[in-house]
Amino acid sequence: MSATSSYRLRYQQRIEYEIVRTSHLFAPENPALLSPGRGAGSRRFVVVDENVYRHYGAEIHHYFDAHRIEARVVPAPAGEEHKTLETYLFLARELDAFPIHRRDEPIIAIGGGVLTDVVGFLASSYRRGLPHIKVPTTLMGYVDASIGIKTGFNFNGHKNRLGSFYAPQKVILDKAFFRSLPRRHLLNGMCEIIKLAVIKDARLFTMLEEWGEQSLQTCFQDEQSDQILDRAIRGMIEELEPNLFEEELARKVDFGHTFSYGLEAQYEDRLYHGEAVLLDILLSVLMARNRGLLSAEETERVFALTERLGIELDPAVLDAAMLWESLEERTYHRNGLQRVPMPAGIGECVFLNDITRPEVEAAALELETRLTREFHAVYQR
Ligand SMILES: NC(=O)c1ccc[n+]([C@@H]2O[C@H](COP(=O)([O-])OP(=O)(O)OC[C@H]3O[C@@H](n4cnc5c(N)ncnc54)[C@H](O)[C@@H]3O)[C@@H](O)[C@H]2O)c1
Fold first, then answer.
1. Residue 111 C-alpha to ligand 1 middle, in angstroms?
2. Which residues are CB-neighbours of 341 under 8 A, at least 6 positions away?
3. Collapsed DSSP state (helix, strand, coil) of residue 11
4. Cβ(235) to ligand 1 under 6 A?
5. Does the annotation mark 83 as catalytic?
């Protein structure tokens, strides 16, 4: 005769963190980087993307010196190719050699999405979790990568294969960083804003149509750009907050993140994350039009916007077989259903579970033809 008994343990943790927009972040009179945490006489482990360090390293050192905080500032190798276990281990060793208090000396991560993802994972795993502050320095980080709680790095040929959900203590946004950001990386972040606009915010889309070019010209330093950034961040929070741990697998913010998965894995050296996302968006827009979810006019508005913003996309990467495999992989990732977000009119979303291979092939062929035409037009100009 068998006998079974069980015990139950229940614990609930509240997650709350502040996302602060500030300016002159490294001016000693700005307290944003210090709080929460101990002040004079304390320590900080600060990881800075190596390119960011080149531009702002002296200011960062000066800031902590001015507050008599002993900071170990570690420049970290930049770029997607360094989003690896090796970078994680390098940082773990550095941190191990610089003991900090587990509760009130938060790790500080200053850099793009690659850096904040890797350092977020370091914070979540070192001594089973230390507080950390994220300071995104790219547009991609500002409107997307730093807002949520996903951390990780690439592993075994897969994007973000090792990672965790781990909330920061705080996120600090200062758009002044965009002044030194290469234009292609500004455009890269713009792709994520386009994503949000097409799938959930028609007003944001018209703002991009009206002010997008100007935002790029001013590196988002003008007043209208502020409105775009504010709307994009609010939209992101609106989507993430009720589903922070992704219990619900049908997510609007996954728009552009189905076919891009394979594109990124295959063309890591040629495509940035946002560019892969935009290719996915354009492919999806064509499929949505073919299904009658988008009108021809709405479809053309999306293409016109990307062209007007000067985002150049390489048509040579559009291999239909690979795109289909990517959809299959994402279907597995989404627990067996495609759950592909699709625009149903600009600013509205439906989820599809019945996309067919011929649909993907037809859209890929049309997109390749269109982009090749535009590519040549740019070349001849
Ligand atoms: N965690 C998430 O929810 C989430 C969301 C979106 C994207 N991501 C991840 O983000 C990564 C892409 O992030 P990214 O586009 O910021 O790339 P990135 O971190 O590689 O930064 C882009 C480049 O810009 C340089 N750079 C950064 N800030 C700079 C500045 N202010 N001035 C001059 N140069 C600067 C970097 O050195 C790098 O060469 C991808 O790995 C993606 O998976 C994560």
1. 7
2. 199, 250, 251, 252, 254, 255, 349, 350, 351
3. coil
4. no
5. no
Decide whether any atom of ligand 1 lies within 6 Å of the 195 Cβ.
Answer: no
Q: What's the gap between Cα 204 and its chain centre?
A: 18
Pocket test for ligand 1, best of 50, 117, 260 (most atoms within 8 A of CB): 117
Ligand 1 atom showing the smallest separation from residue 51 Cα? 37
Instruction: Tell me how far the alpha carbon of residue 115 lies from the centroid of ligand 1, in angstroms.
Output: 7
Catalytic-role residue among 83, 134, 150, 159 = 150
Secondary structure of residue 48 in the 3-state scheme: strand
Q: pTM, whole model, 2 decimals?
A: 0.96
SS3 108: strand
Which domains, ranges and CATH numbers included, belong to the chain? 18-179 (3.40.50.1970), 182-380 (1.20.1090.10)
Spatial separation of the C-alpha atoms in residues 242 and 137, rounded to whole Å: 26
Q: 180 CB less than 6 Å from ligand 1?
A: yes
Contact at 8 Å (CB) between 98 and 70? no
Report whether 73 contacts 110 (CB < 8 A): no
pLDDT 10s per residue in the chain (381 long)?
789 999 999 999 999 999 999 999 999 999 999 988 888 899 999 999 999 999 999 999 999 999 999 999 999 999 999 999 999 999 999 999 999 998 899 999 999 999 999 999 999 999 999 999 999 999 999 999 999 999 999 999 888 999 999 999 999 999 999 999 999 999 999 999 999 999 999 999 999 999 999 999 999 999 999 999 999 999 999 999 999 999 999 999 999 999 999 999 899 889 999 999 999 999 999 999 999 999 999 999 999 999 999 999 999 999 999 999 999 999 999 999 999 999 999 999 999 999 999 999 999 999 999 999 876 665 555
Distance 306 CA to ligand 1 centre (A): 20
Secondary structure (3-state) at 235: helix
Closest CA to 33 of 7, 6, 59: 59
CA distances for 307 relative to 239, 270, 371, 374, 375, angstroms = 27, 19, 10, 8, 10
